[in-house]
Amino acid sequence: ISPDVNLLYLSFAKLDLSYDDISSLIATPTLFKSLIGLEYIGINEYFNDALQLRKARPDIIMLLSLGGENYQPISLDAALNSTEKIANLVDELGFDGIDVDYEPNGSFDALNDINKADFYVKYVTKLREYMCEDKL
């Protein structure tokens, strides 16, 4: 990695991700994809590389990106109920925080819908309950 790089986004995780044990997820890439997102081939290698990068370059800010165009929550309640799991995942992976890339219906324009905008505010507010302010 170039010494000019100072920020790395791991993308995209589901807004409504769910898991019980990180070690079993990393050992089972298909389970990881279905519960967390992050559609990488060789997820074990990816995380090993990320952890090695963390050791070699502790100055790089590593963020877990949530959502994106492809990951719409099954339900808004499911996403709101996943916020503690997201905070736990960030801590377990040793990341510095999260980036919320909420694109309802695959577009930022959908945030003009009052229900979608209201959900986004509730979601970020609830994430803040479980994460330090500097991680969000």
Briefly summarize what is shown.
The chain has 136 residues and is α/β, with parallel strands linked by helices. It is 44% helix and 15% strand. This is Chitinase 1.
Topology of this structure?
Blueprint lengths: L6 E7 L8 H6 L1 H7 L7 H14 L4 E8 L7 H5 L2 H11 L3 E6 L11 H17 L6
Q: What's the number of structural domains?
A: 1
Q: Radius of gyration, Cα only, in angstroms?
A: 15 Å
Contiguous uncertain segments of 5+ residues? none
The geometry reads as: globular
Number of helices: 6
Architecture overview:
- The protein is α/β, with parallel strands linked by helices and 136 residues long.
- The protein has one domain (7-135).
- Helix content is 44%, strand content 15%.
- A 3-stranded parallel β-sheet has the order 1-2-3, with helices on one face.
- It is globular, with a radius of gyration of 15 Å.
- The mean pLDDT is 83.
Q: Characteristics of this structure?
A:
136 residues, 6 helices, three-stranded parallel beta sheet, 44% helix, single chain, alpha/beta
